[in-house]
Amino acid sequence: MGxxxxxxxxxxxxxxTLPMLLSKSLQAGWRVAVRGTDRGRxxxxxxxxxxxxxxxxxxxxxxxxxxxxxxxxxLTTASEAANSPTCLMIVDGAQIAxxxxxxxxRVCVIFDGHDPEALQTARGQWKELTGAGCSAQYxxxxxxxxxxxxxx
Length: 152
Description:
Elements: E1 3-9, H1 14-27, E2 32-35, H2 39-50, E3 61-62, E4 73-76, E5 87-91, H3 98-103, E6 106-112, H4 116-131, E7 135-140, E8 147-151
Parallel strand pairs: 1-6, 1-7, 2-4, 2-5, 3-4, 5-6
Antiparallel strand pairs: 7-8
């Protein structure tokens, strides 16, 4: 049974935090799907990942290609990912269901702490997931480094 980790971005943006989380997930041996809500935003993230440092290259693909099932990291807006992920990263307020959390090794809900709507969405997701019995942790970078602030 998996757990949901909530990452409250206040110091760095998604484009800086996502590569770190993806790298750790791949090191753990997980296949990852990054679920967003907007195809254009996923294309932007795809480009950002390609432009990262060569020594930190993250093998990935944008959903809709011929090799989606083979991708270690797949960027998608679909509720089902073709790469059979064991880790799911939720960005931009994409939906996540308690059954999905329970089926994964890890779910990461990454949200912008400067966006009131994103904060409200993340709070609702926390309540829904913990209310359904999912294990959850809340991480904040307010101090300049990641610290666990709550657990349920």
